[in-house]
């Protein structure tokens, strides 16, 4: 007879009071055999596996955030491009919308997208601290999806409010994205060097610049994904809208000058660009696909992106006071490093808009037709995505090399474009356009990767990073607003502004590196100590677990200038505090009126 698979509880079995391993059963069984550690347990191996899972989780977070940002921006750019082309056509406007005033709606929509971010410096840090980095990313991606959904019913009261909401979400989204990638690099360093962390004091910060190699890799991954969004945005154009467009002989019939001789945007371009009008059903299908992709981006951020901070760190970031959170971005202006980088921030916004409007429209569409716009932007996207890997050169080369190399490449291209005026309706020079677009993408990749990595290296304190990335992307938004205001300028004026800004940015950045090499100490605003209103079990330890890295670096003893300290309780103490007991009374002891544990 075979023994039962599971022995009956309480049964002695064939061996009486002992099991097959010779261990007594019942009340005489040793306690260590029941609740003790597994005999083959290897603590070091389990710890190694635990931190390996943590590192894989960080990589998953980086890939999910990168894919979510790519899909979000790709859907936004693709929908906006298709919408503006359809609304530009006179026949489409008259047949579909009559006298609704669609050009006026489009102008107000663009105004909402470009003007609203100017106020983002006032609310972005507050929103990021209130919602948290991950949830701010999710909320902003949801607002992008809201903008996509309003195109099902194109009216003034749907398009314009959603465009204003989108403009409000632009700076918070990209500031939280930059902060998120930087935090992931710092966490990956912690999980890779956990043995060194165990040997240090609990609140001792790692060596400065220790996370820089991981930050370079993560920023290269992020921008390799992000620049693919420009190629993803052309898919509706390539597979849908190009089938309805006239060729260049019709659309460019009245165009007389292109490139450096042009004025405004596509002067003389034909008012009818569609051979046949797309069916409403087909438009709904395309918009539904875009809406599904936007919803997928939301799910990626919600389901696969982990938190950027621990819960206790989130509490500390909010507990410095909302007034201080509002003021700190302005106080960081006293830091000479940020002041020297402001021209590069502005140029970073200029060069992206110039790639999409200057090269793609002023040089590309103006000479080779609207049907080749998508392929020009795909060349820019693939060049930028592939060149983002060049940011890894910072692992071996001096820090200024990638950033200055990108600026030098843009300088050569700008000077070349300044003296080139392609002939309209001539295709034999089209290969020059594709090469110029791809090379401009290489410079953009070096610019974006270098700036984000530089900010993550210069500002390692976790309580400053959201302020720094907010300032960076706010200046980018200001540059985009300037481009929006100057869209009617001649191409030579645009190139001159671009050239002057680029030279000033490179000179200012090299001046900053020179100051740092000479040992000039930057002046940073003090981050206030977290003021917790509720004292729970996690604030009873002698070591303050909520002390920020900057405070711990100062020694922890002093609060710094301007810091507030709690006043000692009035009145005599009930009794001397026993030796060796140095902690706060718990809430129960406070209710009883004591200052600590009673003497035995």
CATH architecture: Up-down Bundle
The largest pleated sheet is described as: none
- Count of discrete alpha- or pi-helical segments spanning 4 or more residues: 23
- The H-level CATH homologous superfamily, spelled out, is MFS general substrate transporter like domains
* Tally of structural domains: 1
Alpha-carbon distance between the two ends? 64 Å
Classify the beta-strand content into a percent band: under 5%
Helix content: 55-70%
What is the N-to-C succession of helices and strands?
HHHHHHHHHHHHHHHHHHHHHHH
Q: Please report the total strand number as a whole number.
A: 0
Structural class: mainly alpha
For the record, the CATH class is Mainly Alpha
Mean pLDDT: 84
The outline comes out as globular
Radius of gyration: 30 Å
CATH topology: Growth Hormone, Chain: A
Low-confidence stretches: 9-18, 537-548, 554-581, 594-600
Commentary on this structure:
This protein is mainly α. The protein has one domain: Up-down Bundle (Growth Hormone, Chain: A), CATH 1.20.1250.20.
Describe the protein's topology.
Elements: H1 31-35, H2 43-88, H3 90-97, H4 102-115, H5 120-131, H6 133-149, H7 156-192, H8 194-199, H9 212-226, H10 228-232, H11 235-239, H12 248-251, H13 280-304, H14 311-318, H15 322-331, H16 336-368, H17 373-387, H18 400-418, H19 430-458, H20 465-485, H21 491-518, H22 549-553, H23 587-592
Helix pairs in contact: 2-6, 2-7, 2-9, 2-13, 4-7, 5-6, 5-7, 5-15, 5-20, 6-7, 6-13, 7-9, 7-20, 9-17, 9-19, 16-17, 16-19, 16-20, 16-21, 17-19, 18-19, 18-21
């Amino acid at each position: 007879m075979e023994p039962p698979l599971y022995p009956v509880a309480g049964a002695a079995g064939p061996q009486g009071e002992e099991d097959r391993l010779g261990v007594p059963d019942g009340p005489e069984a040793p306690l260590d055999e029941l609740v003790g550690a597994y005999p083959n347990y290897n603590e070091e191996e389990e710890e190694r596996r635990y931190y390996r899972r943590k590192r894989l989780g960080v990589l998953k977070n980086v890939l999910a955030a990168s894919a979510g940002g790519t899909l979000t921006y790709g859907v936004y750019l693709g929908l906006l491009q298709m919408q503006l082309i359809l609304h530009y056509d006179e026949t489409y406007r008259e047949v579909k919308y009559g006298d609704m005033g669609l050009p006026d709606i489009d102008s107000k929509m663009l105004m909402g997208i470009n003007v609203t971010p100017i106020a983002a410096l006032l609310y972005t840090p507050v929103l990021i601290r209130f919602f948290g980095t991950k949830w701010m990313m999710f909320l902003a991606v949801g607002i992008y999806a809201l903008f996509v959904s309003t195109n099902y019913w194109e009216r003034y009261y749907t398009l314009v409010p959603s465009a204003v909401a989108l403009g409000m979400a632009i700076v918070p989204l990209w500031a939280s994205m930059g902060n998120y990638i930087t935090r992931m690099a710092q966490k990956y360093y912690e999980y890779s060097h956990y043995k060194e962390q165990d040997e240090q004091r609990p609140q001792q910060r790692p060596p400065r610049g220790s996370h820089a190699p991981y930050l370079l890799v993560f920023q290269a991954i992020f921008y390799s994904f992000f620049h693919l969004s420009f190629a993803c945005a052309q898919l509706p154009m390539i597979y849908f809208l190009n089938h309805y467009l006239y060729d260049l002989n019709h659309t460019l019939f009245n165009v007389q000058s292109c490139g450096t001789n042009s004025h405004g945007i596509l002067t003389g371009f034909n008012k009818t660009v569609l051979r046949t009008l797309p069916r409403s059903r087909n438009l709904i299908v395309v918009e539904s696909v875009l809406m599904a992709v936007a919803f997928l981006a939301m799910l990626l951020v919600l389901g696969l992106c982990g938190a950027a901070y621990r819960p206790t760190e989130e509490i500390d970031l909010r507990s410095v006071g909302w007034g201080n959170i509002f003021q700190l971005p302005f106080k960081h202006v006293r830091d000479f490093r940020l002041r020297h980088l402001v021209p590069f921030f502005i140029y970073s916004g200029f060069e992206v808009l110039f790639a999409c409007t200057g090269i793609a429209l002023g040089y590309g569409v103006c000479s080779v037709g609207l049907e080749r716009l998508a392929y020009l932007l795909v060349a820019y996207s693939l060049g930028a995505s592939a060149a983002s890997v060049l940011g890894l050169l910072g692992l071996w080369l001096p820090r200024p090399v990638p950033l200055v190399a990108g600026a030098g490449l843009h300088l050569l291209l700008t000077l070349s474009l300044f003296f080139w005026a392609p002939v309209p309706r001539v295709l034999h020079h089209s290969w020059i356009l594709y090469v110029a677009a791809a090379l401009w993408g290489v410079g953009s990749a070096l610019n974006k990767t270098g700036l984000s990595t530089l900010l993550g290296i210069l500002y390692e304190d976790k309580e400053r990073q959201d302020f720094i990335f907010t300032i960076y992307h706010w200046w980018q938004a200001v540059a985009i607003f300037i481009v929006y205001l100057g869209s009617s300028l001649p191409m030579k004026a645009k190139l001159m502004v671009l050239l002057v800004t680029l030279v000033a940015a490179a000179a200012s950045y090299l001046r900053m590196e020179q100051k740092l090499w000479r040992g000039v100490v930057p002046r940073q605003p003090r981050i206030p100590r977290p003021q917790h209103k509720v004292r729970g079990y996690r604030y009873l330890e002698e070591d303050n677990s909520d002390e920020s890295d900057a405070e711990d670096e100062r020694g922890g003893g002093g609060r710094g200038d301007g810091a507030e300290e709690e006043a000692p309780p009035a009145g005599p103490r009930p009794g001397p505090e026993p030796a060796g007991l140095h902690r706060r009374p718990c809430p129960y002891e406070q209710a009883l009126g004591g200052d600590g544990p009673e003497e035995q």
